[in-house]
């Protein structure tokens, strides 16, 4: 309970930082051309490197080595680290990237709380600032001068043009939500030009033919510490049923330390299930993704220990499925044609109650609230009204052990030209199975 109260206090501070309205867009002049450098992304509250996963693949589609794009991850509740320790970790990552690539400096990006971390870092010493060629401040803190004197671009989403960093290139994208600003095409185009002085050849995540490399971390949400004493098995699955194509995994890892796994050889067109099982627990987690398209070293498997705070959010029962639909672009359920659609077994689950634009939900928990075998998508459930970036919907999805059916999820995202993404998973019972479905934030 003490940790829960601490989280709620942190939530209150977060909402004090976030804007509430939108404004018109402007653009700034690009910097002179510079050679591409390695880059580091610093996430925000309750965030992880996954918020920059799409942009990393866009940069790679334009010739950046995938190994040159890294993420500084930390516990944004500060239960497991201090801000000073986060700064020291950034020192170490910059030094290692410079040594590995031969670059004289790195490019740095921060989002939300990550902008406070980044600004503090750049302002803390001239030596630290000297290691950073460009800084991008994404929908976070304002400033009355360039952080550390480093050339800066500030990107602002919905919330008004009153926010700025004096002396920076301030870019306003009023129709983009808070997390969306990290993953959008508009942000990528602006940042690429700021870093390189040229426009990108493409803003797509360009598919790679042949073998690709897949790797990342399994981390405990929201603390970003590695999942340990656990096993990870990776399976290919049939996209029509979600069932494994073989009983043999394509990769297996014993998770320890920071939860890193891979890279392993994969396919850009395959559908994968990542299965996490823990020593001493019968509860397992299944994580499903859309095809990765190209090499991805930034996969983040967001997990939690059985019986943890996150586990409290889910009502488990052997008769129903419980799942999380996650996307690094807010689900908008109250914007009409300008919003998103998401159906589960044909039932629409996005609306003004579950996912209003103001909620900024990127994670939607779906389960049979109160285990009454009934569906009611018009009510708020559980603790979700008090939590940032998360919401919940009451929907009954019958389960079986072993699974004897499927759960079909279909979504059309705003700005996606009407394309429908579809992920099908087995109907795992929630008393012993956690299901997470990751949808792309791009089409």
What does this structure look like?
There is one protein chain. By secondary structure, the chain is α/β, with parallel strands linked by helices. Helix content is 17%, strand content 28%. It has 7 helices and 22 strands. It has helices at residues 2-17, 53-61, 83-101, 113-124, 126-129, 180-183, 185-196, and strands at residues 39-42, 69-72, 106-111, 132-138, 152-156, 169-172, 211-220, 225-226, 230-236, 251-255, 260-267, 272-278, 284-289, 296-303, 323-326, 341-344, 347-348, 363-367, 390-394, 406-412, 421-426, 433-438. The chain has an 8-stranded mixed beta sheet, with no helix packed on it. The protein has a 6-stranded parallel beta sheet with strand order 2-1-3-4-5-6, with helices on both faces. Residues 210-306 form the AFL C-terminal domain. InterPro entries: AB_hydrolase_1, AB_hydrolase_fold, AF_1763-like_C, AFL_C.
Please tell me the overall pLDDT.
93
Shape: globular
Query: Can you list the strand order of the major beta sheet?
Result: 10-9-12-13-22-15-18-19
The biggest sheet amounts to: 8 strands, mixed
Number of helices: 7
Give the topology string: H per helix, E per strand: HEHEHEHHEEEHHEEEEEEEEEEEEEEEE
**Percent in helix:** 10-25%
Radius of gyration: 21 Å
| CATH domain class of the largest domain | Mainly Beta
Instruction: Enumerate the spans where pLDDT stays under 50 for 5 or more consecutive residues.
Output: 1-17, 20-34
Number of strands: 22
Distance separating the two termini: 41 Å
Brief sketch in words of this structure:
With 443 residues, the protein is of the alpha/beta class. Helices cover 17% and strands 28% of the residues.
């Amino acid at each position: 309970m003490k940790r829960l109260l601490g989280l709620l206090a942190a939530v209150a501070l977060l909402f004090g930082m976030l804007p509430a309205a939108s404004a018109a867009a402007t653009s700034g002049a690009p910097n002179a051309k510079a050679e591409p450098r390695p880059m580091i992304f610093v996430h925000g509250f309750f965030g992880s490197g996954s918020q920059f996963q799409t942009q990393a693949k866009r940069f790679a589609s334009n010739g950046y080595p995938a190994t040159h794009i890294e993420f500084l991850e930390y516990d944004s509740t500060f239960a497991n680290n201090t801000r000073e320790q986060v700064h020291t970790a950034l020192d170490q990552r910059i030094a290692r990237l410079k040594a590995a690539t031969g670059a004289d400096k790195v490019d740095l990006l921060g989002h939300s709380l990550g902008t406070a971390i980044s600004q503090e870092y750049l302002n803390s010493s001239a030596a630290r600032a000297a290691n950073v060629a460009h800084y991008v401040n994404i929908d976070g803190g304002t400033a009355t001068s360039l952080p550390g004197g480093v050339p800066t671009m500030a990107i602002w989403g919905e919330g008004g043009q009153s926010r700025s960093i004096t002396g920076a290139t301030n870019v306003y994208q009023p129709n983009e939500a808070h997390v969306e600003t990290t993953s959008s095409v508009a942000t990528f185009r602006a940042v690429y030009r700021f870093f390189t002085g040229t426009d990108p050849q493409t803003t797509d995540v360009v598919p790679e033919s042949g073998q690709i490399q897949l790797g990342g971390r399994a981390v405990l949400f929201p603390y970003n510490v590695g999942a340990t004493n656990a096993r990870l098995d990776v399976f290919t699955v049939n996209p029509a049923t979600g069932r494994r194509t073989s009983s043999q995994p394509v990769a297996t890892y014993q998770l320890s330390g920071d939860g890193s796994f891979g890279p392993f050889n994969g396919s850009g067109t395959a559908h994968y299930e990542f299965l996490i099982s823990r020593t001493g627990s019968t509860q397992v987690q299944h994580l499903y993704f859309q095809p990765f398209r190209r090499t991805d070293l930034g996969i983040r498997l967001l997990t939690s220990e059985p019986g943890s705070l996150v586990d409290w959010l889910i009502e488990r029962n052997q008769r129903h499925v419980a799942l999380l639909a996650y996307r690094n672009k807010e689900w908008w359920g109250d914007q009409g044609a300008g919003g998103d659609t998401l159906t589960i077994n044909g039932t629409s689950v996005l609306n003004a109650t579950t996912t209003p634009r103001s909620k900024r939900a990127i994670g939607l928990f779906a389960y049979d609230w109160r285990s009454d075998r009934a569906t009611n998508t018009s009510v708020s459930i559980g603790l979700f009204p008090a939590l940032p970036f998360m919401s919940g919907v009451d929907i009954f999805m019958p389960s079986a052990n072993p699974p004897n059916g499927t759960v079909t999820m279909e979504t059309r995202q705003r700005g996606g030209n009407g394309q429908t993404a579809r992920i099908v998973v087995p109907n795992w019972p929630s008393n012993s199975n956690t299901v997470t479905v990751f949808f792309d934030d791009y089409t």
